[in-house]
Write a structure and sequence with these properties.
- With 132 residues, the chain is mainly beta.
- The protein contains one helix and six strands; from the N terminus they run ββββββα.
- A hairpin with a 2-residue loop joins strand 5 (69-79) and strand 6 (82-87).
């Protein structure tokens, strides 16, 4: 019996208040510094993971807009290619259910180096409207 031992804190505590649901949906993060197009990767009633070419920094406030809904949010973490946002107030579960029905994640397409072999030059991407 270890009555007087200290409890060790969990080095990686779970910060989410609800489970995330995997989705694949076009979305845009609207900010005064410029809009960031991207995709919703997963979502819960309290937050989401947003993938984009140039994610905003931690602490930035924005509006996350997708085809069915928009929500005020704040970036709580950011790394190359994606960021996590926390919604200002929880979104209804019905919104998530509708999104899952309209944009399920499904299998991800993986490209190999040989996919574009012999096709000639690829068209260039349109210029970006923001600077990372």
């Amino acid at each position: 019996m270890k009555l007087f031992t200290r409890a060790k804190p969990d080095p990686f505590p779970e910060r989410r208040t609800g489970p995330r649901t995997r989705v694949d949906c076009l979305a845009t993060m609207l900010m005064p510094s410029g809009d960031r197009p991207g995709r919703l990767f997963d979502i819960s009633t309290t937050g989401a993971r947003f993938t984009t070419e140039c994610p905003p920094a931690k602490g930035v406030s924005a509006i996350l807009d997708w085809s069915m809904y928009e929500a005020y949010c704040m970036v709580v973490w950011s790394k190359p290619g994606m960021c996590g946002v926390e919604f200002d107030k929880p979104i209804p579960q019905k919104v998530i259910d509708d999104l899952v029905e309209a944009a399920p994640a499904g299998p991800r397409l993986v490209h190999s180096a040989d996919d574009n072999a012999g096709e000639g030059p690829q068209p260039s991407a349109p210029p970006r409207r923001f600077v990372c």
